[in-house]
Design a protein that fits this description.
The complex is a heterodimer of chains A (about 110) and B (about 325). Chain A contains five helices and five strands; from the N terminus they run H-E-E-H-E-H-E-H-E-H. By secondary structure, chain A is an alpha/beta fold. Chain A has a single domain, classed as HprK N-terminal domain-like (Udp-n-acetylmuramoylalanyl-d-glutamate--2,6- Diaminopimelate Ligase, Chain: A, domain 1), CATH 3.40.1390. Chain A is globular and about 35 Å long. By secondary structure, chain B is of the alpha+beta class. In chain B, the strands form three sheets. Chain B has a five-stranded antiparallel sheet. Chain B has a three-stranded mixed sheet with strand order 3-4-5. In chain B, strands 1-2 form a two-stranded antiparallel ribbon. The longest helix of chain B has 30 residues. Chain B is elongated, with a radius of gyration of 24 Å. The N terminus of chain B is likely disordered. Classes of the chains: A alpha/beta (about 110), B alpha+beta (about 325). At the A-B interface, helix 2 and helix 3 of A face helix 8, helix 9 and helix 12 of B.
């Protein structure tokens, strides 16, 4: 699926989308960056409460094209700057991690 | 008056603009991160007591060819008399007054264990000719001016150049081929989350350029990232080095302290000494060393409480693409 089709299907807020047509393979939900580094699959969206630039660094490392920040948490400017530089999309949802993950799960299941 | 000088800049924040403008050679950026203020500052200080007359400071400045004299008693720092203060005293006719009455007390000071990059940022921000340097106990231990920085950087760059020349000569002798891809060192500063992950990312990019198998790249990147974060979170600062040669990627994290009391415990999943602040950033879950071990073909850790820790991770790169 393309990132844009996921954004539309789940109703995510696009804070920064460097490439709407990038292929997204699934999602991974975690707030522990070591866990993300160890297990997040290449091409997955990261669903997290971690609204800081270290999350972007981790996504760059594992090849995750986008971060979904839950609870509408504010995205700080330095996170936005790093994400722009690294080409990582920043998305937002007012929902909690469980609900957001369930919605994403349904979207990816339908796409299968 | 015995009020201590205001030290409103000692709690400098990490981050902000790149002190060197972001376009300097990497080796220079590494140097200004690795060198501490204490490595560069002048420690042979000419100081005066609070009771000393400004006339005496004027004489000292003339004889020693210096433009600022700290006012200090038994290591306690009270203020600074600058050439401007002396000029004003001569004009105002109070050159025989005690320093304590006219010295500058609203001062920006640096701490001796700050990276040199902080000092450069401060020179850029405040346009002062010099900064007094205090240690952790707020004692005056030195003074730093831009000339000190230039001198230290020249010395270090020359040393670095010699090291690079001799290491490339040695490598050419050893195998005469380009089988050693890279030997790099990244200095990592304590709590420098601003730059956390940069070393691992550079390693990853280089491996991608060299067309290593993606799974091998991921394992090397994971080991490098976790070791980098460990240095940042747990050590007093250290060096992450890596080398790829003869079918092996070797990543070594070395620090000078504080050391691990129980290495076996530290390598267990979920155990961590990280504080709440570190955890709130998503670090310190106690998975770091476990992750490194998991992706490594060889793993070694040596540590002693009170001294340093060295972690070595080796990943074989010559294997066929793994499933």
């Amino acid at each position: 699926m393309t990132l844009q089709s996921v954004i539309d299907a789940v109703g995510l807020e696009s804070v920064l989308v460097p490439d709407a047509h990038v292929e997204v393979t699934g999602a991974y939900t975690s707030d522990l960056l070591s866990d993300v580094v160890a297990h997040c699959p290449d091409g997955a969206l990261l669903v997290t409460v971690q609204n800081h630039k270290n999350s972007v660094a981790v996504c760059t490392l594992v090849g995750a094209p986008a971060i979904v920040v839950v609870h509408d948490r504010e995205i700080p400017d330095d996170m936005l700057d790093v994400a722009r530089r690294e080409g990582v999309a920043l998305l937002r949802t007012p929902e909690d991690q469980f609900t957001a993950s369930c919605r994403l799960g349904c979207v990816f299941k339908r796409a299968d | 008056m015995s009020a201590a000088p205001q030290t409103h800049a000692t709690a400098a924040t990490l981050g902000g603009t790149d002190p060197a403008g972001g376009h300097e050679p990497l080796v220079l950026l590494e140097l200004i991160q690795r060198l501490k203020v204490r490595d560069v500052m002048t420690t042979k200080l000419t100081t005066v007591s609070r009771a000393a007359p400004l006339r005496q400071v004027q004489e000292l400045m003339r004889k020693k060819k210096i433009s600022g004299v700290p006012v200090e008693e038994s290591g306690r720092f009270f203020g600074l008399v600058s050439i401007d203060d002396i000029i004003r005293a001569l004009g105002g006719g109070y050159i025989e007054d005690a320093c304590s009455r006219h010295m500058t007390t609203k001062l920006v000071v640096l701490e001796d264990d700050m990276p040199l990059s902080f000092a450069l940022r401060y020179f850029d921000r405040y346009h002062y000719g010099r900064f007094p340097v205090l240690n952790r106990d707020q004692r005056l231990v030195g003074i730093i001016c831009q000339r000190d920085i230039n001198r230290a950087l020249l010395v270090e760059l020359t040393r670095e150049l010699h090291r690079l020349e001799s290491s490339s000569a040695k490598n050419a002798e050893q195998d005469g081929t380009a089988s050693i891809y890279v030997l790099r060192e990244f200095p990592i500063c304590k709590y420098d989350f601003e730059n956390a992950g940069k070393a691992a990312n550079q390693i990853k990019q280089l491996l991608q350029e060299k067309k290593f198998p993606p799974k091998i790249i991921r394992r090397i990147a994971v080991a490098a990232y976790e070791l980098e974060i460990n240095l940042c979170v747990h050590s007093d600062g250290g060096v992450l080095s890596w080398q790829i040669s003869n079918g092996r990627a070797e990543i070594i994290a070395r620090d000078a302290g504080p050391g691990i009391e129980d290495v076996e415990w530290a390598c267990r999943d979920g155990t961590s000494t990280a504080n709440e602040w570190i955890r709130s950033l998503g670090f310190g879950a106690g998975m770091g060393l476990v992750n490194v071990k998991r992706v490594s073909d060889e793993f070694e850790i040596t540590s002693k409480k009170g001294s340093g820790t060295t972690v070595k991770s080796v990943i074989y790169t010559d294997v066929a693409e793994q499933g």
